[in-house]
């Protein structure tokens, strides 16, 4: 029986197989498309076609199976195909957002016969996902500059890959408007689809920073083809007394504790604790800075930029984070020790061991943190106010690049007023390659010469260094020659030639098959300036830009870019409030590769910034189609590179200067991201209880379906006494009116209230009964400035306090005086057409014994001196203003004042053109 059943089963299978084979021969089944290319988040229609070649009607069950993509139609459907006829079936498929371009997907259709339940036809449709480049760079809250132009600015940029393919990216950093030196190297990395990363950018202000209205730093991402895929900008918040009273206390006292939670709505949330304490006396300094971070997602802790600085007499030392800039830039964890024998010289030794933010795989296959160790000696000496020099000697052991380097440099500077300034640099270096065992000796030299004479001004800045130079400006050649001539008070003419050449050290060799051996860039410019009014200035700048690339230094030029352009700059200053800066740049560009003209096109650039009181708005426009030639056998690609960015900001101080609030929005469009990117920001700082400040920063970013919130909050407490200060003392100062001028407090002489005293970096005020408390001061000698109220004077101006342990009382006599009141009027010279204010000028009155009394001119040009009755000779010390020469006409006769009767004086000054090179070209960089 079992054998019979087995025999019948085999016969049935053979019959079904034969029928299925006959059916497959009678029907053909194909997709109308050989393949489908689909975008993420896109719905497409696919069509499967059936052809019945037999004379019988075929009935079957169609089954659809999709891999990776989603089927929007029914998975199964009954199909009836008449004899000798065709039939089609259409269905829809959807591609999710998470599809990766590196993988292949498919959709399979099969037809099962209703008669014998076997598959009589099948077809497969390959589905390819197009690459979608969606890389965004999201600015993070940046650390503001606090108090010093030597502070390092740290800024984080979050890179998000919302595309569907892995991206090989390179981060480049460049200051947009100058004002900063960037010390972040070129960073290359791969970013998987759906992933993000955080990169850190470091920079410090340079000498041009104070003269810039809105200094910015820009970073941009490029892919392996050199196409720009994302850009971002940040503008550091410079804290000033303009909107925060706390800052003044922060700068002078600099003792605070801050607890902040940053990036709360992201995957990079951190808890930060900052403690800063600074103790200063004339010969002693103690500066402590602790900055700790806790990362929530990795539960890791770290100390960042923490240090301890100590100085006693002529000796000083610093432990922790150190950054030194010279011809060689060194930064990291280390120790510095030095001596300051006097105010004109200093010598310091520094050792730095930097192994941060860098991981590598060693020869055994394990991760390691290669170090960069450096020893350096820095010396400075000033012969006088006009002449000084400095030198730097550095030895570096770089385990990352496997090279050792040594460098010695000498910098000389000579200044003779605004008429002439000369600065030079000369350096020698030696680089030893550990792998090739070769030594490379290189040199660097630079010379800057700035001067002015009558209507002429000039600036010459030159620098050259070798390709194996160990210093910061490696393989850099720079020549900037400018000359200007003032025609009259309304017009000025100038010319400029700029040439710079970069070596391969400025490129990233990982992404380029052909590294340029030389990149030469030249700019020739003529500028014509017209001063329409005192508040409106227009500059017209036609110029020519040329760039040459050689991939072999001995061969001919491989690539040439020539651009003939013209730019117009407009500057407008309102009477009281308001400022407008507008630039429009247009030109025609021509590309040549291997002596063949590739493309010509017009490009337009514009940017503006407008500020009025608490409102400001700025924008950027760039229309620049370009032609990109692929050297690695890829086809040429033509792409528009348009950028539009605009956004208003509002900042206001409220609640009697206790609340600072800022809100703004930026709208950014780029062809590379295919749409508009919107970024909303809001910030506030609220000061309360005299010593506390709450601060918060919120951002909301949106682009298509991508949305992100970010919030950072914190609390700062400003404490009065530094950490580690000695046991304080108790000192009481009594101010009284000395009516009989015997410098002793007699019966009936009343106290004087509201007397101000500047002592040890703080301003104290005498309260009830003229008593001023100067508690918790360590024993020692202090120099304090006494500022009496109106009608009273303290002839010495300053008092020397000898503070000792325990309680002590000091009586300070004040005199009742007369007053000298007046104004300072500034007249314009023949070729001078700008507004100059006398605010801050120092007015000095000397009596018959040459005892000086001083006051400062207010913003309306008036001044007020309180002096004892008598005769005085006046003198004026103006503030130094770049580009301006001041001639002052003083009263020829002495000024006589009597008690209770003010004497009115008018002082006239004439402003003329000074250093034209600074006036018309900006402050030159000091090397």
Superfamily (CATH H level) name of the domain at 473-654: TonB-dependent receptor, beta-barrel domain
β-sheet strand percentage: over 45%
- Report the CATH architecture of the domain at 473-654: Beta Barrel
Overall strand count:
62
Overall residue-averaged pLDDT value? 75
- Roughly how much helix do the residues carry, as a percent range? under 10%
| Cα gyration radius (Å) | 38 Å
State the gist of this model:
By secondary structure, the chain is mainly β. The chain has three helices and 62 strands.
Tags for this model:
mainly beta; Ig-like_fold; 927 residues; Maltoporin, Chain A; signal; 26-stranded antiparallel barrel; 60% strand; five-stranded mixed beta sheet; Immunoglobulin-like; 62 strands
Structural notes for this entry:
There is one protein chain. By secondary structure, the chain is mainly β. Among the domains are: 19-129, Immunoglobulins (Immunoglobulin-like); 134-238, Immunoglobulins (Immunoglobulin-like, Sandwich), CATH 2.60.40.10; 473-654, Maltoporin, Chain A, CATH 2.40.170.20; 730-816, Immunoglobulins (Immunoglobulin-like), CATH 2.60.40; 818-921, Immunoglobulin-like. 4% of the residues lie in helices and 60% in strands. It has a 26-stranded antiparallel beta barrel. A five-stranded mixed sheet has the order 2-9-8-4-6. Strands 1-3-7-5 form a four-stranded antiparallel sheet. The longest helix is centred in the first third of the chain and has 25 residues, at 2-26. The chain starts with a helix and ends in a 6-residue tail after the last helix. 21% of the residues are buried.
């Amino acid at each position: 029986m079992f054998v019979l059943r087995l025999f019948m089963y085999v016969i049935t299978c053979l019959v079904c197989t034969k029928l299925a084979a006959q059916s497959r021969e009678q029907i053909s089944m194909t997709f109308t498309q050989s393949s489908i290319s689909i975008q993420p988040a896109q719905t497409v229609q696919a069509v499967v076609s059936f052809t019945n070649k037999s004379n019988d009607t075929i009935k079957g069950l169609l089954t659809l199976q999709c891999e990776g993509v989603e089927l929007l139609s029914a998975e199964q459907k009954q199909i009836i195909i008449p004899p000798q006829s065709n039939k089609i079936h259409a269905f829809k498929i959807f591609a999710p957002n998470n599809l990766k371009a590196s993988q292949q997907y498919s959709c399979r259709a099969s037809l099962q016969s209703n008669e014998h339940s076997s598959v009589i036809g099948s077809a497969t449709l390959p589905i390819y996902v197009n690459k979608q480049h969606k890389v965004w760079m999201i600015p993070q809250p940046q650390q503001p500059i606090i108090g010093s132009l030597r502070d390092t600015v740290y800024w984080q940029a979050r890179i998000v890959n919302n595309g569907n393919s892995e991206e090989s990216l390179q981060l480049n950093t460049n200051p947009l408007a100058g004002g900063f030196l960037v010390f972040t190297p070129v960073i290359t990395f791969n970013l998987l689809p759906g992933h993000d990363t955080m990169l850190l950018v470091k920079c410090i202000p340079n000498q041009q920073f104070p003269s810039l209205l809105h200094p910015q730093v820009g970073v941009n991402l490029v892919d392996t083809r050199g196409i720009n895929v994302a850009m971002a900008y940040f503008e550091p918040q410079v804290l000033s007394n303009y909107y925060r009273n706390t800052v003044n206390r922060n700068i002078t006292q600099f003792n605070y504790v801050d607890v902040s939670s940053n990036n709360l709505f992201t995957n990079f949330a951190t808890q930060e604790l900052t403690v800063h304490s600074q103790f200063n006396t004339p010969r002693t300094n103690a500066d402590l800075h602790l900055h700790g971070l806790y990362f929530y997602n990795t539960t890791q802790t770290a100390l960042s930029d923490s240090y301890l600085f100590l100085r006693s007499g002529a000796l000083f030392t610093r432990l922790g984070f150190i950054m030194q800039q010279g011809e060689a830039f060194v930064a990291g964890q280390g120790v510095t020790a030095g001596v300051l024998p006097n105010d004109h010289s200093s010598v310091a030794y520094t050792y730095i061991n930097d192994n941060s933010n860098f991981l590598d795989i060693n020869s055994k296959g394990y991760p390691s943190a290669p170090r960069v160790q450096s020893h350096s000696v820095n010396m400075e000496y000033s012969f006088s106010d006009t002449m000084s020099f400095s030198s730097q000697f550095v030895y570096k052991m770089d385990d990352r690049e496997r090279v050792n380097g040594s460098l010695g440099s000498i910098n000389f500077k000579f200044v003779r007023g605004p008429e002439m300034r000369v600065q030079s640099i000369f350096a020698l270096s030696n680089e030893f390659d550990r792998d090739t065992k070769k030594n490379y000796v290189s040199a660097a030299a630079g010379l800057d010469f700035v001067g002015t004479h009558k209507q002429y001004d000039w600036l010459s800045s030159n620098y050259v260094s070798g390709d194996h130079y160990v210093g910061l400006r490696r393989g850099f050649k720079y020549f900037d020659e400018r000359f200007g001539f003032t025609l009259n008070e309304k017009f000025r003419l100038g010319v400029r030639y700029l040439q710079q050449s970069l070596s391969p050290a400025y490129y990233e060799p990982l992404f380029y098959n052909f590294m340029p051996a030389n990149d030469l860039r030249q700019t020739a410019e003529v500028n014509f300036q017209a001063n329409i009014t005192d508040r409106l200035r227009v500059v017209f700048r036609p110029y020519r830009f040329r760039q040459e690339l050689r991939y072999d230094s001995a061969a001919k030029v491989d690539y040439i870019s020539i651009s003939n352009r013209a730019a117009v700059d407009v500057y407008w200053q309102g009477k009281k409030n308001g400022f407008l800066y507008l630039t429009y740049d247009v030109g025609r560009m021509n590309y040549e590769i291997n002596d063949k003209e590739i493309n010509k096109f017009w490009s337009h650039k514009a940017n503006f910034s407008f500020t009025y009181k608490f409102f400001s708005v700025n924008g950027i426009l760039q229309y620049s189609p370009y032609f990109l030639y692929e050297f690695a056998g890829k086809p040429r690609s033509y792409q528009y590179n348009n950028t539009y960015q605009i956004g208003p900001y509002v900042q206001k101080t409220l609640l009697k200067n206790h609340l600072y609030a800022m809100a703004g929005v930026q709208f950014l469009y780029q062809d590379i991201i295919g749409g508009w990117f919107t970024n909303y920001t809001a910030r506030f700082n609220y000061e309360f209880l005299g010593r506390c400040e709450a601060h918060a920063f919120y951002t909301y970013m949106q682009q298509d379906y991508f949305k992100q919130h970010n919030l950072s909050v914190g609390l700062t407490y400003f404490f009065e006494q530094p950490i580690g200060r000695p046991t304080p003392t108790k000192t009481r100062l009594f101010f009284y009116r000395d009516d009989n001028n015997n410098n002793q407090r007699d019966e009936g002489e009343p106290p004087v209230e509201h007397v101000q005293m500047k002592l040890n970096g703080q301003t104290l005020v005498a309260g009830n009964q003229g008593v001023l408390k100067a508690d918790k001061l360590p024993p020692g000698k202090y120099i304090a400035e006494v500022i009496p109220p109106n009608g009273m004077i303290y002839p010495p101006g300053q008092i020397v306090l000898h503070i000792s342990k325990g309680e002590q009382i000091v009586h300070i006599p004040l005199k009742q005086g007369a007053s000298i009141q007046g104004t300072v009027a500034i007249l314009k010279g023949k070729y001078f057409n700008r507004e100059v204010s006398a605010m801050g000028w120092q007015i000095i009155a000397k009596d018959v014994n040459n005892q000086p009394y001083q006051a400062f001119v207010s913003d309306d040009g008036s001044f007020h001196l309180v002096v004892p009755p008598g005769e005085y000779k006046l003198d004026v010390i103006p503030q130094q203003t770049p580009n301006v020469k001041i001639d002052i006409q003083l009263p020829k006769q002495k000024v006589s004042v009597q008690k209770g009767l003010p004497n009115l004086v008018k002082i006239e000054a004439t402003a003329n053109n000074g250093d034209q090179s600074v006036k018309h070209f900006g402050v030159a960089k000091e090397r």
